[in-house]
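Quick one - inputs below.
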Amino acid sequence: MLTKRIIPCLDVKDGRTVKGVRFEGLRDAGDPVALASRYAREGADELVFLDITATNQKRATLVALVRDVARELDIPFTVGGGIGTVQDVEALLMNGADKVSINSAALARPALIDELARRFGSQCIVVAADARYHAPDGWQIYTRAGTHNTALDAVHWCREAADRGAGEILLTSMSNDGTKDGFALDITGAVSRAVGVPVVASGGAGSKQDFTNVFQQADADAGLAASIFHFGEIGIRELKEHLRQDGIPVRL
Amino acid sequence: MEIAVIDYKGGNVQSVLFALDRLGVRATLTADPEAIRRADKILFPGEGEAASAMQELRAQGLDQLLPTLTQPFLGICLGMQLLGQHSEENNADLLGILPFDVVRFPTTPGFKVPHMGWNTLQQLRSPLFAGLREEDYVYFVHSYYAPVGEYTIAEAAYPISFSAAVQHKNFYAVQFHTEKSGPVGNRILENFLKM
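Output:
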């Protein structure tokens, strides 16, 4: 049976893993290569690496660091941050990435999704969408590392991304990110039911029960988190044992 | 031992090279027919789209060479599908080494496409899987599949049963990513390298 995936995320800035609250107030969480290999050993199903400085400072993702991380990993590895061209994707795949995640560049020019999917296959193109709740309008998509509101409806954009060839949606709730109050169940469920491709839920994980909830109530295919893993608050194995007890299929 | 990893711009080959490296094995990434012909073992990884992969293989003359090889050969993911006769993906004619046609997963409520993630192996019947147990997990990511047939040496279900691995003579192939399937995948690669 296909299992639900648990995905630690390494937000990387200047070669170090960092973590903030609602995309701000970053603190250091360690060496990305060491963290990546620890997570693979502990039973992570996949790893996501986001170069969070890349878009703002308009520099390419740190290809050498990607290579060092990929060398350690015998689980799938997704890389995002500042990816805007076919050449960017080629360079990352050549250095050991299995999938790439695009965000701002896809919003600036949605046809990029079609081009990348045609060239590399949908299976390796993830569209990352950062959504924030605005009363009374609902969930809207932000771009440029969460600094700019596009006013696009989150479900609408995710559906368009999937229709254009994204093989997976990585949906981050900025309203929940770093709060540890749980995933945004309403928007995750709405997106998951609106697209035919897998949806990774991100933002807000604080307890094992939060993962149970996002799988059982929001139809997420994977749950992504950062700080609870980096700072040792929840072990990947104990999280998966909890999920199995709740009747959720996991790889143990 | 000389190991050739076939280079046809087919996606995440670097992951395969890193996996071999972790097993302490040196491999050469090559499209040179002579280097491929004289290698002791051949890996044929791949991701992406069938028609453009076949176009690339034809441009390099590899579509003629590959069916004539006699050493142990391991196709991975798209590298498995390309061994079949025909793919529904952009109506592509394939290498024709194995008798299956590649088809797309039907739309089934609750089963998203691509089939992406860790799924269990069943009906293991090959030395390629020595040391594995039924229901061991491996990592899949694909939208098309080869149906179960007499060439099938492992199955998986999503929700219909399909070929997780196939074999014909020296040609072995797996739909999942051995290089990304943790200790289980490493064991399969080791088993292959011992053939």
